[in-house]
UniProtKB/TrEMBL annotation:
It comes from Gossypium hirsutum. Residues 5-86 form the Pectinesterase catalytic domain. This is Pectinesterase/pectinesterase inhibitor 43. It comes from the Eukaryota. Pathway: Glycan metabolism; pectin degradation; 2-dehydro-3-deoxy-D-gluconate from pectin: step 1/5. InterPro entries: Pectin_lyas_fold, Pectin_lyase_fold/virulence, Pectinesterase_cat. The gene is LOC121206415. Keywords: Aspartyl esterase, Hydrolase.
Length: 86
């Protein structure tokens, strides 16, 4: 049975104080699409809120794309968040 999350919240001390980081990129990590490089992916479910938090992908490779955040669920709220992709 698939689990679907409802009303998940990430609340922190500020977008420069708490940063969730990853460094995947398409070529080095043998991923076919940019959406596979996300640091945080909110996929199925209903209701996601993030407040005062940062999301970043620090791959640093100029030849590759990399994403910090991806959401495909319904009802997403982002308040005072920073996003740094590549």
């Amino acid at each position: 049975m698939d689990m679907i999350s409802i009303n998940v919240m990430f609340i922190s001390d500020g977008p420069t104080e708490t940063i969730i980081t990853n460094d995947l990129n398409c070529i080095r990590d043998h991923l076919l699409k940019t959406f596979g490089t996300v640091t945080i992916g909110v996929l199925d479910g209903v209701g996601f809120t993030a407040k005062d938090i940062g999301f970043e992908n620090t791959t640093g490779d100029a030849d590759n794309q990399a994403a910090a955040f991806r959401a495909t669920c319904d009802m997403v709220i982002m308040f005072n968040c920073h996003f740094n992709g590549y």
